[in-house]
Amino acid sequence: MIEITYYGHSTYLVKINNKSILFDPFISPNPKASLIKVADIKPDYILISHGHEDHVADAESIAKGSDAMLVSNYEIAVWFAEKGVEKYHPMNHGGSKTFDFGKVKYVNAVHSSTLPDGSSGGAAGGFVIEHANGCFYFAGDTALTYDMKLIGEEFKIDFAFLPIGDNFTMGIKDAIKAASFVGTKKIIGIHYDTFPYIEIDLELAKKEAAEAGKELILLNIGETFTL
């Protein structure tokens, strides 16, 4: 069993084996997450899929305030190291690393990646997390790709965090295909409704997922559930 808390946009805190992993922290600039106290979030790890501000905005403050290990691609990890983040681990596509909560593989994503100051964020990616009780996929911002079929061939994915907001990433139809490619029936939505460009009909998205034999899980900001 793992515990999952939603902080808005693509930001989730996942607790595995008494360790907490925070994905793509974008909270303080998000008016929809105004009730979340960033200073109270103390993860053991911060995993960042790519360099856009809406995925890294609170990473530095949370990393320094929690002594968390920041994990991302080489360019992003080094960028944060230059900002004084002392604990960091760089990765790149296709590479894996075992941490005390499980094994992380950095996988392909199709998306741009520029850091807030204009520096290169390297190539965008996603993460496959293997842990003692299962395996899940955090896609980050991406288009639908055939590379996702390789994930389904290599791993038994219990659930997947997939973007559904369309415009900048996959929409729900492609997210349903992505879930099939990686071999899961459970989709946890990310990257939707935060901005006008990515506002979607949530009930219709759930209906489309259900008609395709998938479960689309959409949480309220601040809500926690277990899988």
From TrEMBL:
Keywords: Hydrolase. SUPFAM superfamilies: Metallo-hydrolase/oxidoreductase. GO terms for molecular function: hydrolase activity. Pfam families: Lactamase_B_3. The keyword Manganese does not apply. Residues 8-191 form the Metallo-beta-lactamase domain. Gene3D superfamilies: Ribonuclease Z/Hydroxyacylglutathione hydrolase-like (3.60.15.10). The keyword Hydrolase applies. It comes from the Bacteria. InterPro entries: Metallo-B-lactamas, RibonucZ/Hydroxyglut_hydro, UPF0173, UPF0173_UPF0282_UlaG_hydrolase. Belongs to the UPF0173 family. This is UPF0173 metal-dependent hydrolase SAMN00777080_4586. It comes from Aquiflexum balticum DSM 16537.
